[in-house]
Amino acid sequence: MTELNSAHGPGRSPTPLRGQYLSQQAARGRRKERSLPSLSRERPNPLQWLWYAYGGRLPARCREWVLHDITCRTWALRHVARALVQVSPGLLLLLLPGPLWISAMSLLGGVIMAVWYSVSAMVETCEHRLAKHGYPVGTGKAKRAEADAELLAEQEARYAALYRNRPEQQ
């Protein structure tokens, strides 16, 4: 029997815990973890995460969480979120005197440019984060490639079946 959340009230159906749901999804093959199991990694607290988002180094106990952060399925979205946090103090520009539309448009231009540059150096930045936490350079790229190997093999097989094995048409 599954363990239930204590947050359900009268009239609400009990739901399985998140970890159990994810393990059920993984067992069905719908979701595959790309890095270490969640039991071995400790998440940083909000202040530590903010420090990490600005480029700081986390304590050693969060080392495996950093590897997960850089190699999980949503690593690119996480990187963009960190970039948006880094440019968030720019919102103070909206408090400057003058027409609001000028401040808003210059802020929007700055955010677009910051995200553009951040995304252009995403792989290198993530590898640098891993190197700061004691992993060899190239670990993130290798872990992501390892996780995508099965999917890539399946895509290559479908491509070969569709386009490579066709008889010559005249």
How would you characterize the largest beta sheet?
none
DSSP strand (E) fraction?
Answer: under 5%
Report Rg. 22 Å
Determine the structural class based on helices, strands and strand pairing: mainly alpha
Tertiary shape: flat
> What gap, in angstroms, lies between the N and C termini?
62 Å
Question: How many H/I helices?
Answer: 7
Strand and helix order = HHHHHHH
Walk me through the structure.
This protein is mostly helical and 170 residues long. The protein contains 7 helices and no strands. 12% of the residues are buried. The N terminus is likely disordered.
Concise overview:
This protein has 7 helices and no strands. It has helices spanning 18-28, 46-53, 63-71, 75-87, 100-120, 122-132, 139-164.
Topology readout:
Layout: H1 18-28, H2 46-53, H3 63-71, H4 75-87, H5 100-120, H6 122-132, H7 139-164
Name the descriptors.
flat; 170 residues; mainly alpha; disordered N terminus; 7 helices
